[in-house]
Write a structure and sequence with these properties.
Length: 140
């Protein structure tokens, strides 16, 4: 998005990013966070919901800014940092701990359900941003 040559290209990239982030969030919120709760990680799943809600709000605020402005760049960098931090916590410790608690068949079921939810929102771009339940991205 930062390398886009003009406002229209930045807005198009922002729309694509919004679809990917929202699809990913919806899939996690519908499938993975409930699994975390069932595995006894209620506090972490609640925090994960809050973090994703915050990014959705920040993305909406970003849409209101001039895409060629410093404010836009600052907000985009804030979102990037928040998403990176969120991913680090989920993939670094949260998801691996939950995976330890689940049999392989349940992991596979959750992975398939995640893919279904992601596909439902993202559609043809479903390969981008998908992940397996072990927390490893498959196409970001």
């Amino acid at each position: 998005m930062k390398s886009a040559p003009d406002a229209a290209a930045r807005r198009a990239a922002l729309k694509e990013l919004g679809v990917l982030l929202t699809g990913h969030a919806i899939a996690e919120e519908a499938v993975i966070y409930p699994a975390m709760t069932e595995a006894g990680e209620t506090g972490k799943s609640g925090l994960a919901y809050q973090e994703q809600q915050s990014v959705k709000v920040q993305m909406a605020m970003l849409e209101a800014l001039d895409p060629m402005s410093d404010d836009f760049d600052d907000k985009l960098e804030h979102i990037r940092g928040a998403v990176e931090h969120h991913m680090y916590r989920e993939e670094g410790t949260w998801f691996p701990k939950v995976v330890e608690e689940l049999p392989a068949t349940e992991q596979a079921r959750i992975g398939l359900r995640y893919a279904e939810e992601y596909q439902r929102y993202v559609g043809g771009d479903a390969g981008r941003g998908a992940m397996n339940f072990s927390g490893a991205p498959t196409g970001l």
